[in-house]
Structures are given as structure tokens and as C-alpha cells.
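pinned: reference chain
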Amino acid sequence: MEHELGLKFYSFSVALWDILLSNAMFLLFNIFIPFAFISLKTKNILVLIILMIIFSLNLIPSFIAMQYALNKKINQDQSIIKLFLVGYKNSYRNCLKANLFFVISFYLFYLDYLYFSSRNLQSVALLFVILMIVEAYFVMAFCTIQSKFNFSFKDTIQLSIMYIMKLTKPMMLSLGFLLGFLLLVKNGAWMTLFFMFALVARINNKQSEQVCDEIYRFHTKEGLLVNE
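pinned: its C-alpha cells
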């Protein structure tokens, strides 16, 4: 009994360490985003948005890298840091176009939201809020597929669209947890930052396993060979 409890505690400790370390790597790669909000003394919203676009170019590849590292760590003894760096290198090379498109379009939606809100056109402003949420949903699906497969940008986009409905549960659950954690941070629970992103990635990985297995079987050479 004691041996079993010891093994469970060890497994929990390793999983917790992986979450904390991968989350720390994600924060390190995106450290300039909060720095921009805190330190930039400019009232020019356009200048701030341009700087935020530049600082946000690490967001998608580093989130993919975090998902990749947490997924690979289950079956490998390699360091979570090494796995993160491998995932980051692969994702940045393969997702540069997607990264630029998603980041720029998100901030354009945000600018439109600020513009129409300042003119009390709340119904139009709400439209851009919805567009930002839809984009966040699609980006999460894109990251999930890209973190597990080495598809081209075009193929990943096509698969994200093809499987968008089947990914509804994992994506909504992940975004729900992320929103909840962000609300906690907003209300002063800063310690949440030390694990929230990696925990969302871990939930995403777990909930999307079935869909990713289907993608593997029907859209990879290895999977197609197994099916024959």
C-alpha cells in the first residue's frame, strides 16, 4: 500500500514539475508582452499595437512547443526544456505564415473593437469580440494539430477546418479554463500564472487525443499504411 502511494506521489510530482517547467518556458519566451503593457509610456494606441504584434510573434510557436513537450514527455525521458526547444524550433519554422496572420488579424479585430466602442456602437464592437473568440478557438485547434504532426501550413489549416466540429469539446474546455485562469489573475491571483498555460495545454492534449488519433489514421502516411 505504501509502495503504491509512493509511486502515485512520485508520478504526481513529476507531472507537476513538467507543468511548472514548461509553463516557465512559455512565460520566458513571451516575457516582453507584459513588459510592453507595464513599461511603454505611449498614448498612441497604433504604436502600442504595432509593438504588441512584434512581441506576440512568439505566442503561437511557444504554445505549440509547450503542447509538444508535454505530449512527448509522457513517452520519453528527455528534459522538458529540450523537448520544448525542439517543439519551438519545428513550430516556428512551419508556422511563420500562420503566426503572422493570426497575430495581425487578432490585433486588427481588437483595434476595430476599440474604435467602435469609443463611438458607442456596441453592437458592432460586439461583432469584433465574437471574431476574436472565434479566432482564438481556431488558433487553439491549429496549435493542437501542429503540435502532434509535421504538416505544412496549408495542410494544417485544411485539417483545422475539417475537424473543427470534432474539436469543439477540447477547444471550448481549454478556452474555458484559460478564461477562468485569466479572471483569477485579474482579481489578484498572480500565482496562477506559474501553471495556467501549461495546464490548459495538458487539458487540450488529453481531450483531443481521439481526434488526433483519427487524423493520424487517415491523414498520415504511417496511419494509412496501418489501415491497409
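why pinned: The chain has twelve helices and no strands. The two ends are 46 Å apart (CA to CA).
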